[in-house]
Amino acid sequence: MTDNRKIDPTTGTETTGHSWDGIEELNTPLPRWWLWTFYATVVWGVIYTILYPAWPMVSGATTGLLGYSTRGEVAAEIARVELSNADLTESLVTVDLGVLAENEELHRFAVQAGRSVFAAHCSQCHGAGAGGVKASGYPNLLDDDWLWGGTMAEITYTVRHGIRNEEDPEARFSEMPPFDWMAPEELDATVHYVRSLSDLTHDATAAGQGAQLYADNCSSCHGAAGLGDREIGAPNLADAIWLRGDSYADILAQLKAPRMGVMPPWQARLGEAEVRAVSAYVHGLGGGEADVGEAAATPAD
């Protein structure tokens, strides 16, 4: 057999036979240390795919001989933290919410836990900073204007049962009827009167005409002075805080076709400890009110 190998005369190394512009490619052997390292990584890769989850299957992946799972590791860590906080969690479930703030350690634990619950479940509607979204009717939780009350017990009840949902028979419920049956001039007069309640720019003559319309159709819920009624979730119309906007067009639209939000009940989703924790967090955002005791302030709970 003829030996067709070609040796480079300068280096004495076999060439590959490839040549570019007279420059020939040397067939220099790989360093042994590099070669053995490469073989070792191949062996390690095979062993890894046997021991750990690796190969995707139709409905999952191979579990590996060791049965390792990152999900399991996270679950174990969560269980460890929950176990370490078991005493505080138990205390949070049983404490009277009206005196929660008096226990500094328990209150701090509740607020910190509630911050995480809020970020995971509430921020999508109320915003990461809890400032609400006026365009969508999501309330601002930072101010001191509460449709259903701002004590710890009242906030907890709202979180626990939600608002206008079909899942919980204990949900808070109120409904504003449409006033599209009013004549255009009556609607106009009512809007101007409502705007006058909070000292917004308005037509005084029209507002005067709308006073009786308001008294006949709106005062039973919002009150004669427009201060609202928390028992039925009727908003205060005499302050500077508006859930869906305070412009003439916003108020007119609400009169003709009322928009009412829905909040799901969180009791079954979160459990009592997390419901109380997120309530403590929301209460401490800036608008929470003093609570005289859970039993006195929680309706039909």
Describe the structure.
C-type cytochrome. Part of the cbb3-type cytochrome c oxidase complex. Belongs to the CcoP / FixP family. InterPro entries: CcoP_N (IPR032858), CcoP_N_sf (IPR038414), Cyt_c-like_dom (IPR009056), Cyt_c-like_dom_sf (IPR036909), Cyt_C_IC (IPR008168), Cyt_c_oxidase_cbb3_su3 (IPR004678), Cytochrome_c_Oxidase_Subunit (IPR050597). Its cofactor is heme c. The structure is a single chain. The protein has 301 residues and is mainly alpha-helical. It has helices at 32-51, 70-84, 86-94, 104-121, 123-126, 152-161, 184-197, 204-217, 219-222, 248-256, 267-270, 272-283, 294-297; strands at residues 15-20, 23-26. It has a two-stranded antiparallel sheet. Strand 1 and strand 2 form a beta hairpin.
Q: List the strand order in the largest sheet.
A: 1-2
Distance between the termini: 98 Å
Structural class computed from helices and strand pairing: mainly alpha
Order of helices and strands: EEHHHHHHHHHHHHH
Number of helices: 13
Count of strand segments: 2
Strand content: under 5%
Question: How would a textbook summarize the main sheet?
Answer: 2 strands, antiparallel
Low-confidence stretches are 293-301
Would you tell me the overall average pLDDT?
91
Rg is 34 Å
- Specify the overall morphology: elongated
Subunit structure: Component of the cbb3-type cytochrome c oxidase.
Cofactor: heme c
Function: C-type cytochrome. Part of the cbb3-type cytochrome c oxidase complex.
Pfam families: Cytochrom_C, Cytochrome_CBB3, FixP_N
